[in-house]
């Protein structure tokens, strides 16, 4: 008989979701979907607030990638007041470099969290390992020295974030047209040299390479399984600079296909001319796609794997050398192997550590003008900002009235961009691990979650709804009988 399998909740992700898999009488997969079952209405909450509050308020949608939301919002405000890359008035070097410093520090600590806390347990213990073992506590018991290095690496990134943004979480430093402070020389010194309880930048760089070595070792031992797991089609998109290399803070959006041919490249402020957003009744998360190509052909992958597929090289030497090996593995073609997202993530950990090191040595970080003032006619009342968050391209779009109060806000976050490819991955893994099998084990079900966790999804950031949220009130008696129900 037909069977429905439900994984609820999905574990070791940010937010709440479930997977529903339908099997026919022969146990073949007929359908598999990722259901996002929470809703957060930040795009409505912000309306009526002064525009300058947006980067501070909107970042509270998430406790993980708040730096990315803070900066995407700040860039949108720069655009709104008529300063920044799209105008004749550039931000000061100190402002841009301070923002970049905090941005790469977040990339470091967020990737370290996703990789070591959420992904590595399966790499060490296996998909079939007992749930009480395949977690961070199990990792601590198996290799306490590794965990110590991981914790201090993440702590260092968080300390840099606090110094740059004024708070360890939900910072306050970015303002329209710049930042409100530079980095004290004492902070620069302690991050470079270290202090009791805080590693030096050289120790950080050494620790940042642990993940890549672990992936390479795991890949060598399980090559066939890793390469075959969840191979699904999608275009690849990220911000690039004038040389076509990934820029995590600014640039143009580039989309490439499997041959790395550029199929679209555009100013991110024109995103509405290129993207549409589909909706489904079974999810509060939308499905963006390139309008001209349609939903199936025009869905994009964003995040570490997409960025490494798009970029030709990286700006720092250790990461660039690692990227060369990554590119060579697929003969120069785009990589569609889901678990290779973790490979890409380890390269970005190294790159982020190298960039932070270089920025800490830049004198503009400690001295220079902080804010530029727009001209009297520069106000546009509308702004769009995009950054490469750890999970991929993140867009904030705001409009404000003549009094400066927000009238419209739209967020397209990385997990939303990945929604279509996430569902493709769920279907692919379900077919490989569950299809045609009469007995379903815990390990088989966990394989679905492994595929989802590779994207490090942030469902709290990504949820939206079309129309009005339903409210259902049900009255049930002591025997469980439904006495009445109202739906609004």
Your description of this structure?
By secondary structure, the chain is of the alpha+beta class. The protein has a single domain, classed as Cytochrome-c3 Hydrogenase, chain B. The chain has 19 helices and 16 strands. Helix 4 packs antiparallel against helix 6, helix 8 (201-208) runs antiparallel to helix 15 (340-360) and helix 14 (317-329) runs antiparallel to helix 15 (340-360). Mean pLDDT is 91; it is low at 464-473.
Write the layout of secondary structure elements.
Layout: E1 3-7, E2 17-23, E3 29-36, H1 42-45, H2 54-58, H3 66-81, H4 93-125, H5 136-142, H6 144-165, E4 174-175, E5 178-179, H7 185-193, H8 201-208, H9 210-221, H10 223-228, E6 235-240, E7 252-256, E8 262-266, H11 271-274, E9 275-278, E10 287-290, H12 294-298, E11 300-301, H13 304-310, H14 317-329, H15 340-360, E12 382-389, E13 392-400, E14 406-412, H16 414-417, H17 419-433, H18 442-453, H19 459-462, E15 472-476, E16 482-487
Parallel strand pairs: 6-11
Antiparallel strand pairs: 1-2, 2-3, 4-5, 6-7, 7-8, 9-10, 12-13, 13-14, 15-16
Helix pairs in contact: 4-6, 4-15, 5-6, 8-15, 9-15, 13-15, 14-15, 17-18
